[in-house]
Amino acid sequence: MPVNEARFLSTNPLKSSQPLGAAYAFLGIEGAMPLLHGSQGCTAFALVLFVRHFKETIPLQTTAMNEISTVLGGADHLEEAIVNIRTRANPQLIGVCTTALVETRGEDFAAEIAAIRSRRADALGDCHIVLAGTPDFKGSIEEGWSAAVTAMIETLTQPAVRRDPERLVILAPSHFTVGDIETVRQTVEAFGFSPVILPDISGSLDGTVPDRWISSTYGGTPVGDIETLGAASHCIAIGEHMRGPAEALRGKTGLAYTLLPTLTGLAAADRFVTLLARLSGRPVPAPIRRRRSQLQDAMLDGHFQFGGRKVAIAAEPDLLYQMASFFTEMGAEITVAIAATPDSPILAAVPAEVTVGDLGDLEDRAAGVDLLVSHAHGRQASDRLGIPLFRVGFPIFDRLGAQHRRTALYEGTRELIFEVANTLLAADRHHPTPQSLNPLRNKETFHDSRPSPEPRRY
Predict the structure, then answer these.
(1) Strand ranges in 208-332 using DSSP code E only, listed in sequence order
(2) Are 166 and 233 a contacting pair, CB within 8 Å?
(3) What is the extent of the structural domain holding 285?
(4) 3-state class of 168 per DSSP?
(5) How confident is the model over 46-79, as pLDDT tens digits?
(6) Same domain assignment for residues 24 and 69
(7) Cβ contact 181:201 at 8 Å
(8) 6 inside domain
(9) What one-character DSSP code corresponds to residue 334?
(10) What is the secondary structure of 381-404 as a DSSP string?
C-alpha cells in the first residue's frame, strides 16, 4: 500500500523518542543501567512514561548536561556519570543512549567511551559499556530498541567455536509484553529448545518484588548469554525492526536467521510453530494443537463482532502491521492507518493506505469508524469522537496489567479477539423494538378488533 506523509508539524504526538526505545531494550538485560546522555529533562520525561506504564521502580540515569557542557562538550559529564554509576550501583552493563542535545554537536562518542575505559579501567573493572546512537530528531521506539540490541550484539557477542543444536535465539520486538515473551518461551521450550530471548523484559519488568533493594535491573537476558549468542543453532527475529540486529548477529557469528513480521493471528502463529517443528525435527505437541483449536473456535465466536467493522489504527510501524493484519484476518476493514515513522519497509505490507502522522491525523480521519486502536494518549481523541479506544503499545498508563496482556501466538490471539470483541460489545447501543412493532410489550395499548368468541357450553 502507498505511504503518505501527512504533515511536518506534530500537534498531538504519536511517537516516543529513540532514546526511550533504547533504554527500554537495556531494561531487558540482567544487571543493566540505562544512561541517557543529555539533559535531565530528557531522562525525566522517559522515566515518567516508564513508571506510569509499568508501575514499577525503573533504573534510569542521566549525564545531566547543562548549557555550558552542551557548548563545550559533554565528555566530562559522560565520564563522571559512568564512574558514579559503576561505583554506586555496580551494574554489569551500562547502556549509553545518546540524545539530540549531544548528537547535534557531532561528538565522537565511541572514542570518548574508549578513552574513559582506558583512563578509569580500575574503577570500571569488568563492567560493560554499550553505546547506542539514538538521536531524538529521527526514529521512534522501534528504531531506538533496534539500535540498542544491535549495539549489544556488536559490542558483546563473540564468534562461536561450535553450535548447540538445542539453543535458539529469539530477537524480541519492542511491542512484546512480559506476557508475550513468556508465551513464546513456553512454546519454544515445548519443542525441546533452550531459548535465549534478547531483550527479555519478562525477567526484569514482570512485577516481581525482590527481597532487597537492587539499584540496577534484576532479571532479564544475562550478559554471558549475549556474549555466546553465536553458539545457537538458529535465530528467529520478530518484526521488521529486528532485521538489523539479526544481520549484525549473522555478520559476527555466521548464525542464520528467519524473520517473521508478526506472531499475531492464526496464519502468523502457524508459521512460527511450523518453523519450530522443522528446526527441531519434532511433531507439534498436543497442547499446542489444542490451543490452535481453541483459537479457531474463538475466531468463529468473535467474527460476528469483527465482520464489516471499520477500524482506525495509529502506532509504530511493526505494531501497525501486526494490528492491521489481525483485524483484516478477522474480517474488519482498516479505513485509517497512521504510522509514527516513515522509513520501515513493513509499511508497504500493511493492508491499508498508510499515512505518516500523529494522533491529530487519527482524530481528523477517524470520524465514523467503529474502533480506534492506539496507545493511551489516544484517549482524548476517543472522548471527542465518541468512539471506543482499544489500547495497544507503549505507553498504557490508564489501565492495569498492560505489561501482562498477550497478543502473540494462539493463546495471545485468542485473548486479543475476546478483548476487542468485548470492547465493541460494550460500545454498541441496542435500541428497543418500537412499540408499534411489539404490541405485547405494553398490553394496555393493545386493542384487538376481532369480536370476542361466544362462551362455550359443556
Answers:
(1) 234-238, 257-260, 310-315
(2) yes
(3) 167-293
(4) strand
(5) 888 888 888 888 888 888 777 766 666 668 888 8
(6) yes
(7) yes
(8) no
(9) E
(10) HHHHHT--EEE-SS---SSS-GGG
Q: Quick one: 282 and 321 in the same domain?
A: no
Going by their DSSP bridges, the two strands 234-238 and 257-260 should be labelled as: parallel
Cα distance between residue 239 and residue 453, in whole Å: 76
In a domain, 39, yes or no: yes
Same domain (yes/no): 134, 209: no
Q: Which set of grid coordinates corresponds to residue 217? A: 535491573
Instruction: Give residue for cell 525435527.
Output: 281
Read off the CATH number of the domain in which 60 is found: 3.40.50.1980
Instruction: Decide if 261 contacts 240 (C-beta within 8 A).
Output: yes
Q: Are residues 278 and 328 in the same domain?
A: no
Complete DSSP assignment for 52-95: HHH-S----EE----HHHHHH-SHHHHHHHHHHHHHHH--SEEE
| Angle at which helices 409-427 and 286-306 cross, to 10° | 20
pLDDT, tens only, 103-159: 887 778 888 889 998 888 888 888 999 999 998 888 899 999 999 999 999 999 998
Q: SS3 string of 361-386?
A: HHHHHCCCCCEEEECHHHHHHHHHHC
Helices in 5-162 by DSSP H: which ranges? 18-26, 40-54, 67-72, 75-89, 100-103, 109-119, 121-124, 141-156
Which of 219, 171, 159 is closest to 195 using CA atoms? 171
pTM: 0.87
Residue 443, in any domain of the structure:
no
